[in-house]
């Protein structure tokens, strides 16, 4: 096992992990996994070649963390969408080698006068990343204050695919979803078969199972997603028009990724009592 700490793109601190099972790149900025490559295989994650690497900007790709809210500011105060964790520096808390040959890296953030001015709750947030035969992620929120608070959150994961036209997402057949790309009026729809993507897709699936999969015909692989702590999942692809309007995406990048996000979104709101913690967990394997 080797762990190296380097200055990455934009001078941002990165942690490179290499062991017998896989290689990974983790950005300390944003607490964000940028790459997970099982030995002898292609990278599971997608990162845009035009991604920003600068403090105050979100990195387009990998596993951005949306916290302590997912989507628009829930209180309408003009705070940024998806919270304030994906564009700030985290701390490098711990690394360890595990008995099975995997490597765990723990990054974290604790509340400060700056965060309390944005969101008035005391917290300790950790991102536990275990690089092994699979990529295991745990987003752990501890309430260090004296009153309960509520959160929504997501691991907004960009999965690399060979060709979106040859890609399907399975496991959500028959599930109800909110179609945010269509109308956003709150009406739910029901998923028929596997999800295929041929236009903009922005859906919050409700009451989701613990196991989903991305079947990639072009790369001839299946990415399996297992999660816990969530009742919802988001499937997103911006498609051509929106991708072309994003300065940190190539115009055709939408053909090379699909976001399948492990979330507490919509009505899946988590209440964390004072002194308690909550774990949102996802595992990705090929």
TrEMBL record:
It comes from Thiothrix unzii. It is an enzyme of class 5 (isomerase). GO terms for biological process: carbohydrate metabolic process. Keywords: Isomerase. Gene3D superfamilies: 2.70.98.10. It catalyses: alpha-D-glucose 6-phosphate = beta-D-glucose 6-phosphate. Pfam families: Aldose_epim. This is Putative glucose-6-phosphate 1-epimerase. Belongs to the glucose-6-phosphate 1-epimerase family. GO terms for molecular function: carbohydrate binding; glucose-6-phosphate 1-epimerase activity. The lineage of its organism: Bacteria, Pseudomonadati, Pseudomonadota, Gammaproteobacteria, Thiotrichales. Its EC number is 5.1.3.15. The active site is at residues 156, 261.
